Task: structure prediction
Amino acid sequence: MASVTLEKINKVFGHTHIIKDVDLEVADGEFVVFVGPSGCGKSTLLRLIAGLESITDGDLKIADGVVNDLPPRERGVGMVFQSYALYPHMTVYENMAFGLKLAKMAKETVDDRVMATARILQLEELLHRKPKELSGGQRQRVAMGRAMAREPRILLFDEPLSNLDASLRVQMRNEISRLHHRLGSTMVYVTHDQVEAMTLADKIVVLRDGRIEQVGSPQTLYQQPATKFVAGFIGSPTMNFMPAKLLEGDADGCRITTPGLGELALPQDASGETRAAELTLGVRPEHLRLTDAQGENSFEIVNVEYLGNEVYVYLEPKAGDILLIHRSEAPSQWKIGQRVALVPDTEHVHLFDTDDQALGLATQRQVA
Amino acid sequence: MNQYQLIKLAKQLGKWALIAVVMVYAIFPFYYAVITSLKPSSELFQVDFWLSSVDFSNYIQIFTQKSFVRAIFNSIFISLSVVFIALLLGITASYALGRVRFRGRTTVMLTLLGVSMFPQVAVLSGLFEVIRTLNLYNNPGGLILSYTIFTLPFTVWVLTTFMRQLPMELEEAAIMDGATPWETIIKVFLPLMWPAMATTGLLAFIAAWNEFLFALTFTLTDDQRTVPVAIALISGGSQHELPWGPIMAASVTVTVPLVILVMIFQRRIVSGLTAGAVKG
Result:
């Protein structure tokens, strides 16, 4: 178990700058999730920590020691791969013992460690099977067991659940979470699935184009996204964005106008913005209310999705072509083709400036 | 019987007739060699397609010749050495060519492919000088060297193709487990490359076993000859007599092991050769 510190980490492949000046602290025993769209560099960052790629510039510290030039086996890291990458010709036992045997450990120690790991992951019955005789979930557990058997200081996961079907994914997500609580080891986890990120992480790192967009707890990222990108990436269904124009604003709040919704008084601090600045209003689907259409405030319902416990109502936007989404508890009275008025819950809306940075709340200015 | 059934029957007959033609074409020469080898020399020029009696005198004759028995052992030794060296070099080279990124990798691969196109005769005189300089003339080492030169491009090419198909993550898992490149090759890749190794090994063995030109050129004395040369040099009572019986007996003797080997490994050969074709 150990902390990980990244200081100004850069990675360049040929002429492509993949990772740009990443600074990050992972505390001892913390579960950190890297999340972002494909190609954002999250896997590369994980491989830099693992030692599978060389660091172009910057320092990587594990438990206060710089490990830039150490090979993976001396860094004390274990990794679970997306495709599991189990050795097909070895049994489950041999797969887990492979690293220990290479480290020239005594036979009894190897046996103890493998059995202990197998007990934690409930693999005892499967120790003599080959990987091809295992189900997807079992292979996943063996891959974790192989990474854990060497008792690494840090466990790394590279999209470990993306090869499983939906129900198994939820189950394994649960197991990984419980495993973390039980072992208390430092874990770094890469995924493109924001639900996995939200459910597993102590701390989420949102990456975009090789830069850290925002770091924070799942609650912080959901309630106070720092940028429009984070706001749109975290949360499902995604946040609604509408163009807005600043009418007037100061440190105590502002007034904006949005096509369709008309004038709104919001608690955001807009003192840094010029009058008539083009802003973006962000409202989560659950922070919208639907009422009967009134004058300008009239949106057409184009689709209604019934999910059992909730209902998603899709509305034609006034600008752009991404449909607006409203979420409410089932049952819902709304029908396709109806015209309705949208009333945002002004306590919970977000406002982004022309550079897509979020405006802080007037009362919480210092927090950001 | 209606017209439809008739056409179907005709198609069946046609198919079997075609198969029979191909079978006869492929097998008859070998079959005739076996029959000839089992006839006494007095009946040699009677044409018959079935054996009326079995006569082993030809086999007894060749196996009592010390030089022929010696040639068989020479062939076995040389062929096995070639297979071993080619696989060892092939596996290590294929790791480098298939897995390590370096400048000029494609050039090396294309050169390999180009080299394997050269006819033996083209390099014969040059190779002769090399072997003389290395003091390997009339020595199994000279043949092992020259056969390896011709086998290696194919071996490396096939093994590299196969190595590239093994998932990258498998090697990375081994690296995370603390394996050195050598340990990765021996403990992870080697067990997975069996089909490809069986294929290339067997083909290398056959090539070395049947090779004639180099074996004739680079050996001088009876005790260094390999089987193909020994067979060619079996001589009769006078220079006007070709001893067909012993020649056929010797040919059958050296072919049968190959046939058995191919039958044992045939599944492996197919899976090894098609490994590049379909993604598993």
In short: The domain at 237-361 of chain A is CATH 2.40.50.140 (OB fold (Dihydrolipoamide Acetyltransferase, E2P)). Residues 121 and 185 of chain A are 15 Å apart (CA to CA).
